[in-house]
Design brief:
The complex is a heterodimer of chains A (559) and B (372).
Chain A lengths: L1 H31 L15 H7 L2 H34 L5 H13 L2 H12 L4 H10 L9 H11 L1 H13 L4 H8 L4 H12 L1 H17 L2 H6 L8 H11 L5 H26 L24 H27 L17 H6 L3 H32 L5 H11 L6 H14 L10 H11 L1 H13 L3 H9 L4 H12 L1 H17 L15 H11 L2 H24 L7
Chain B lengths: L2 H20 L17 H11 L1 E6 L3 H14 L4 E6 L2 H14 L6 E4 L2 H9 L19 E2 L3 E3 L3 E8 L12 H10 L8 E4 L5 H13 L3 H10 L3 E3 L2 H10 L4 E6 H10 L3 E4 L5 E4 L2 E4 L6 H12 L1 H9 L16 H8 L3 E3 L12 H15 L3
Parallel strand pairs in B: 1-2, 1-3, 7-8, 7-9, 11-13
Antiparallel strand pairs in B: 3-12, 4-5, 5-12, 6-9, 6-10, 6-11
Classes of the chains: A mainly alpha (559), B alpha/beta (372).
């Protein structure tokens, strides 16, 4: 009888998740088949929007660029991420404890902040570019070229591959590596021929994820592709907003459908890769201890690789944005010593909406993040070790909102809050923003939590079952207590993600619902670059603080 | 944060506290402004009863700050709930809310002149004859619903360090000649709004065609000089001051002026053959839940007091001829005489939203960008 109830509970949870997650997407799909905004009485079913988009040469350019961008960045992120994971997890690389959080930093900083930092640092008249020009007589790079965009995007997504590979490597016994070492193989050879091949599914999983993220990349191409008119699907969508003068939702919806059509099969691929999930099992009834491999002479070159990656991906753009926040002007012919100022930070306090935005950002990260993790944990528990079609379904549907660029997801959420009357009063509150964030990051949060849950060896849960505990009891008394640190870590990671999110909240922006991310976008548009840079630095500091607390608590920053 | 800022923060907190405690108690005995009908006091009283006005605006809070502060001082008891959104988001949000029949903005104030006129012609506006109507130019109001509130010249900006004095274009012909004779020197150095991605850009470039017979020659010259196109004035000005680009074409004078005050290296030119004048259009929503407060706010925007702040603190350029200062209609007329060409608030603006015409224009534009 109890079991039956639990089954019902499971289905109810899945139904609610499906509703919350699919509603925006269904709305967008429906919109794509209309000839006017869905809420206009004159709207009729029509395929005109598809005709328009597919006969627009810009669409196909953007499409091709998106494919190249996604493929290119995957090609860069996968090998680098895998090698970094090997170095961090399996070797005695110096300073690992310090490097670990740094490795994950790019995940947590707004792409738009980093992109703008790059412009100040490496743009045609950036500080480093001018220095290079003085030294060599020319600037050896062109930040706005397509290859630069691919390289930057690739480097920025290294942490995604790193995360999954590192998690898998941690679960791997050291015995096979030791065998290889005994017969005299050097570390790089062990990495390439023994350790990494054994975690191929995890690496591929990370790779598919990066490819997927390549399609919804927005901030980087928006800022770096802007001067050359380089379009990818997400920026093409942005362009459509104005192409006909009046925002044409049906056209935007068609592009979203196109993105979903490309990314949906990727989720299927990921699903197949996850089938080897039991390879990740690491927290068994019996501990497995593994010794670290000595790098010997390879230590310093290996460290140099990590530091070089970090410098290019994080240090340089952050230096750029930090510099911009303390000067009134920059560029060719400007002596920075003459334009230094702290006024931009003081000015922020003159704007109550900015002050509210800062507090709201912390609030949605800390409180909203905690509640969101609660939701993710509940759903993850519901499908935990449940071999059923429903589990597969959940896996698919939670990925769905990720296929929508944040801006569209935000607009769809606004519609839901407007047209579903009971939700109406919540619209101008932080609850609307929280719901939007929670839905958009559902897949990410679920992965974090379910990854943690999978670390609990099935034998522990089976032991409880043999002792007669119900599923609910097992989860409450065995699974959850064992993974409490994992859940705490998930909370921190979700905090960081929520604190940096920028596009989803734009349409929900109102007095009282400001968050730093959406303020950055709206200020960027009106030209208050001084404030944008200062606010960016504050955002980075909040995130830095979150990271510091995580380290202090000894939370391992990985699922 | 330095000491002065600390004080500022403190006074801010103090004043916020005072407002929330209810400044109404202070009983600001303000007389009616000159020329207002006697029953206007009733509107003010009703507005105070409503307590607040919800403004949707494309003017960022940074520029609007002084205006809101002064309105608060003039009409204690009416709070302004100020939403700054970009003009597209503003439009999207407003029509969505209207369709859902949920309260939204009472007053819409946007620089997307064409979208504002469209909303009014589509019946989203409320008729209200402002007592200030006689103090603003004829082109500045439409159907007794939409009102222009600013007088912003569309300017050229340039980087004083990097553009030699002899090259600085004084008008459109100068610019055309400069691009034709020094194409290589200015390749990739000129920037403008993208008419494909920005409504404002589209409006400006179509207006150019109306006022400048050689507009398409200029556009082709832009194409040959590899014009760099952006969607925000901020991004363009930032890149001109940094020297990444050196000349910005079609930039709101208001933003340029505000930036120039911080960075004197930015040069601003009002072209002396013709200078387009853009404006921020305000109207009261038919669905306004605080209609009286919206009226009071609109009248304040147009009033001498409000316009004085618009000119001298917000740098948005006043459109009243009786307001003094650098950013005023008067100053613009002094600089270029009758060459100022305001874009009238009228149905003519709807032309640019006609799909067929729009796509045709963009096709021609794309060809021009290839230098054809």
């Amino acid at each position: 009888m109890r079991l039956f109830n639990y089954g019902l509970f499971r289905l109810a949870v899945i139904a609610i998740v499906a509703l919350a997650v699919l509603a925006p997407l269904v709305l967008v799909f429906y919109q794509s088949f209309l000839d006017a905004p869905f809420f206009q009485p004159s709207a009729k079913l029509s395929l005109d929007a598809y005709d328009f988009v597919t006969s627009d040469s810009d669409f196909w350019d953007a499409f091709a660029n998106s494919v190249m961008l996604a493929a290119g960045m995957t090609a860069i992120a996968v090998p680098l991420g895998a090698v970094l994971a090997f170095l961090m997890v399996r070797t005695d690389l110096p300073g690992r404890a310090l490097l670990e959080p740094l490795l994950l930093v790019p995940i947590f900083i707004s792409a738009i902040v980093l992109a703008f930092g790059y412009v100040v640092a490496l743009g045609p008249v950036g500080v480093f570019s001018i220095a290079a020009k003085d030294a060599f007589g020319f600037v050896p790079w062109n930040l706005y070229s397509f290859p630069s965009l691919i390289v930057i995007a690739g480097l920025m997504h290294v942490p995604h591959v790193y995360l999954y590979t590192a998690a898998a490597l941690r679960g791997l016994g050291a015995d096979v590596e030791e065998a290889a070492r005994v017969i005299g193989a050097p570390p790089w050879r062990i990495a390439l021929t023994v350790s990494l091949p054994m975690v191929t599914p995890a690496i591929l999983f990370g790779g598919v994820l990066v490819f997927f993220l390549g399609f919804e990349l927005f901030g980087l191409p928006l800022v770096l592709g802007d001067p050359q008119g380089l379009l990818v699907l997400s920026t093409y969508l942005y362009k459509l907003t104005n192409k006909l003068g009046v925002p044409s939702y049906q056209l935007m919806a068609v592009v979203v459908v196109a993105i979903v059509a490309i990314t949906a099969p990727l989720v299927a691929v990921q699903r197949r890769l996850l089938k080897s999930a039991n390879r990740y099992v690491s927290m068994r009834g019996k501990g497995v201890r593994s010794d670290l491999m000595r790098l010997g002479g390879w230590r310093w070159p290996a460290l140099a690789i990590v530091i070089a990656w970090f410098t290019v991906t994080v240090a340089i753009p952050l230096f750029g944005i930090g510099l911009r926040s303390v000067v009134t002007s920059w560029g060719e012919g400007v002596r920075l010593s003459e334009v230094l100022t702290l006024a931009h930070y003081g000015d922020l306090w003159d704007y109550p909406n900015v002050v509210r935005g800062i507090f709201n950002t912390i609030g949605i990260g800390v409180i909203g993040g905690a509640v969101a993790v609660g939701v993710y944990t509940l759903v993850a528990l519901v499908v935990h070790r449940w071999n059923s079609g429903w589990t597969r379904l959940v896996d698919y549907i939670v990925m769905a909102p990720r296929a929508m660029p944040g801006l569209v997801a935000g607009l769809a959420m606004l519609w839901l809050f407007l047209f579903i009357k009971p939700l109406n009063p919540l619209r101008a509150t932080m609850i609307s923003v929280w719901l939007a964030y929670t839905v958009v990051w559902f897949a990410y949060g679920m992965r974090l939590v379910s990854g943690t849950l999978l670390q609990v060896g099935p034998e522990l849960e089976e032991a409880a079952r043999v002792a007669g505990a119900t599923t609910g009891r097992i989860q409450r008394d065995v699974t959850v207590p064992l993974v409490r640190y994992g859940i705490l870590a998930s909370w921190l990671l979700v905090f960081l993600i929520f604190a940096r999110e920028y596009s989803t909240g734009i349409y929900l922006l109102a007095p009282g619902t400001e968050v730093i991310g959406s303020l950055l976008v709206s200020l960027w548009g009106t030209g208050a670059i001084d404030m944008v840079s200062a606010l960016s630095v504050i955002n980075v500091l909040i995130i830095g603080l979150g990271l510091a607390i995580a380290m202090r608590l000894g939370v391992r920053l990985h699922a | 944060m330095d000491f002065a800022n600390g004080i500022r923060l403190f006074t801010r907190l103090a004043s916020v506290g005072a407002i929330s405690l209810g400044l109404a108690a202070v009983a600001a005995a303000q007389g009616l402004p000159e020329g207002y009908p006697a029953n206007y006091q009733a509107t003010i009283d009703a507005a105070k009863k409503e307590g607040k006005v919800v403004v949707y605006s494309s003017t960022d809070a940074a520029s609007a700050g002084p205006l809101l502060k002064d309105f608060q001082a003039a009409f204690p008891g009416i709070t302004v709930e100020y939403n700054d959104l970009n003009s597209t988001e503003l439009y999207n949000r407003f029509i969505s809310e209207a369709a859902a029949n949920t309260g939204g903005g009472d007053l819409l104030w946007s620089s997307a002149m064409d979208l504002q006129v469209k909303l009014v012609t589509d019946g989203y506006g409320q008729t209200y004859v402002s007592p200030e109507i006689k103090s603003i130019p004829d082109w500045a109001h439409f159907k007794d619903q939409a009102y222009a509130t600013t007088y912003e010249p569309v300017t050229f900006v340039y980087n004083k360090r990097l553009v030699p004095a002899g090259d600085v274009p004084k008008n459109h012909d100068d610019l055309l000649k400069l691009l034709q004779t020094k194409t290589d020197a200015y390749k990739g150095k000129v920037t403008a709004y993208d008419p494909e991605r920005s409504g404002v850009g589209f409006l400006f470039f179509t207006q150019d065609v109306k006022h400048y017979p050689r507009a398409w020659d200029l556009n082709k010259a832009f194409g040959k000089a590899q014009l760099k196109l952006y969607t925000s004035a901020g991004a363009m000005i930032e890149r001109v001051t940094s020297g990444e680009h050196t000349i910005g074409y079609g930039i709101f004078g208001s933003y340029a002026l505000a930036r120039q005050k911080k960075d004197p290296n930015l040069g601003v030119v009002l072209p002396n053959d013709y200078t387009l004048i853009a404006t921020r259009v305000a109207f009261i929503a038919k669905s306004a839940q605080h209609p009286n407060a919206a009226k009071v706010f609109l009248d304040y925007l147009l009033s001498k007091r409000g316009q004085n702040i618009i000119a001298n603190q917000a740098d948005l350029y006043s459109l009243r001829s009786d307001v003094e200062g650098e950013a005023t209609l008067k100053a613009v007329e002094k600089a270029i005489g009758d060459k100022a060409k305001p874009i009238p608030v009228s149905t003519e603006l709807l032309d640019s939203l006609d799909q067929k015409k729009r796509l045709e224009f963009l096709k021609q534009w794309q060809a021009a960008m290839k230098g054809q």
